[in-house]
Amino acid sequence: MKKLIIINGPNLNLLGKREPEIYGSQTFEDYFKNLKSKYNNFKLEYYQSNIEGELIDKLQEVGFNYDGIILNAAAYTHTSVGIGDAIKGIETPVVEVHISNTFSREEYRHHSYISPNAKGVILGFGLKSYDLAIESFY
Ligand code: CA2
Question: What structural domains does the chain harbor?
Answer without folding.
Answer: 2-135 (3.40.50.9100)
